[in-house]
UniProtKB/TrEMBL annotation:
Belongs to the aldehyde dehydrogenase family. The active site is at E210. Signal peptide: none annotated. Residues 11-432 form the Aldehyde dehydrogenase domain. Pfam families: Aldedh. It comes from Rhodobacter lacus. This is Aldehyde dehydrogenase. Keywords: NAD, Oxidoreductase.
Amino acid sequence: MSAAATYARLAAGDAARRVAFSVAKRRAVLARLAEGIRAREAEIMAALAADLGKPEVEVRISEIIPVLSEIRHSARHLQRWARPRRVMPTLAMLGTRGTIRPEPKGTVLIIAPWNYPFCLALGPLVSALAAGNAAVIKPSELAPATSALIAALVKDTLPEDLVAVVEGGVETSTELLAQPFDHIFFTGSPAVGRVVMAAAAKTLASVTLELGGKSPVILGAGADVKKAARMLAWGKFQNAGQTCIAPDHVFVPRAMEPAFTAALRAEIARMYGADPLASPSYARLVGARHFARLKGMLDEALSKGATLVAGGAAQEAARYLAPTVLTGVPGETALMREEIFGPVLPVIAYDDLEAVLAQIEAGEKPLALYLFARDRAVIARITAATTSGALGINVTLAHFLHLNLPFGGIGTSGLGAAHGRWGFAAFSHAKPVLENRFAVLDPLMPPYTTFSARLAQALQKLVG
Ligand code: NAD
């Protein structure tokens, strides 16, 4: 079925769904989705192993658990999120009844990336369904096994007039983007984010853009080097660095650099052994193009004088790049200009924290910024002085799992937010309903008399 026909089929049900898709029914659909996921656990593991060599623990923690907990959280809070809320009348509105009524936007489009291909397609779907919408999902063609799995899962567990999966690449995505969806939820690169927003401008669809970019890390002077190295090795090398909120590069006080790089080396060995290629805990790169890009970036940095502190080994046939740490990476390299999105971590020694803050400020607004520090004054200074999609203090990645926090970027790292009630809000229209109960406006209608003039004056005085 073409993109246009799929859209039209779902959108035809918008009006009826607005009335009939009650909170109880939404909960039932979400429960069916959860059941379908639980029943297909082995298939999910196999698909992610095929696409990304993802270890089972990582599949659970970063693909299955986020979706199941989004379902559980939404089911638990949905009644409250969806309830129409009465608001107090303002002075000039005395005698009216105002209500904010969350209603579904209609039929929405979800475009997903390849790096967490299961979670980033189905997580937004949970919010879209919780808010009462129909949805079309376009999974990433670069994770084909997971794309097929999502299509089968949706077909088998969800009503076909509610959710459709359209598989394919750029062409399919382009066709879908030409349809007048009521909201587009896009997760992917800032470059394609611009394409999505331009397409949305044609239909005036609202958008949520979950994008990427370079997420810097700052080690403060008093940071616990070993704890920081452990947390950073975990955050950086999980899924072989192909994580939108992975630490991109680390600024470390010059005097601490040797101890920090030694601690990183030790953590890498502890997590992945002497030969990470043989480790069942280490994922693979998504494909040959991505491998070539990363290998090229690494070779360029080394040829321009960077020092290899750990890793560096690469095997194209195995889509393998070792957990790699570099120091002394020159600023004019692709590693320092582009989002790395792979297992290469530049460590940059600094002398002056203010210069680091100025350098971050001069770049694009990051999706995440990580700070490792114990000194409250340093934490307060950096919290106030920087802007980013999220700030992690002595932790990496975990804010993604906290459903009471909004998840999203700012500027080139994204627009809008996902998760929990923010995800629900992204897919809802907060419709104001104003009911006139005592005809207060009557005396203010023409013909204007001395009385209406006095009344208008009195009203103006009342509001200031
Ligand atoms: P991508 O932008 O290349 O692709 C994302 C989706 O867009 C895919 O489904 C793809 O088919 C589609 N697409 C690609 N080119 C298109 C075009 N010209 N027109 C229309 N659709 C197109 O991103 P990716 O390579 O899959 O993912 C990597 C990027 O995503 C990184 O920048 C990463 O930081 C970001 N990301 C962000 C988040 C987040 O939550 N903020 C999560 C994961 C990944």
